[in-house]
Amino acid sequence: MFQGFKDFILRGNVIDLAVAVVIGAAFTAIVNVVVDAIINPLIGLFFQADSLDDALKVTVPTLAGGTTTFSFGAVIGAVISFLAVALVVYFVFVLPMNKAKELQAAASGVEQEEPELTEQELLVQIRDLLEKNSAVK
């Protein structure tokens, strides 16, 4: 029982996952600062995003005689915040890293890998090769 646990813990992918979680947590701090210091003030130029938490509230009576409130404004604010974070991650980190990888590959003369074939394309190629081989015999 303990041997299986030991094997599980010492597998490379578990260690890689742990490192990824730690790096992800540290990276989150960077993204949050960029969003809070740059993106949110830019959004604030056009409208006050904090006001969305209190906006678009719908109060509905419950079956027990009380009321419940749906905060659609808070959901819209969360979507805007998510899109702002995704925008920062893509344009500040992903896009420059992809460009750097392309430049590095071009400088080293390594050709880019061909995209993987779909199952249908692969089956068509196999069929064509079989037809070609049967015609040769």
UniProtKB/TrEMBL annotation:
A GO CC term assigned to this protein in UniProt: plasma membrane
Keywords assigned by UniProt, alphabetized: Cell membrane, Ion channel, Ion transport, Membrane, Transmembrane, Transmembrane helix, Transport
InterPro entries: Mechanosensitive_channel_CS (IPR019823), MS_channel (IPR001185), MSC/AndL (IPR037673), MscL_channel (IPR036019)
PROSITE patterns (UniProt xref): MSCL
Subcellular location: Cell membrane
UniProt GO molecular function: mechanosensitive monoatomic ion channel activity
Membrane topology: Multi-pass membrane protein
Keyword hit for Iron: no
Main location: membrane
Highest taxon in the source lineage: Bacteria
Pfam families, sorted: MscL
Transcription is among the record's keywords: no
Matching SUPFAM superfamilies: Gated mechanosensitive channel
Chain ranges passing through the membrane: 12-35, 70-95
Description of how the protein assembles with itself and partners: Homopentamer.
Family of the protein in this entry: Belongs to the MscL family.
Listed HAMAP family: MscL
Function of the molecule: Channel that opens in response to stretch forces in the membrane lipid bilayer. May participate in the regulation of osmotic pressure changes within the cell.
Protein name according to UniProt: Large-conductance mechanosensitive channel
Organism: Microbacterium pseudoresistens
Lineage of the species this protein comes from: Bacteria, Bacillati, Actinomycetota, Actinomycetes, Micrococcales
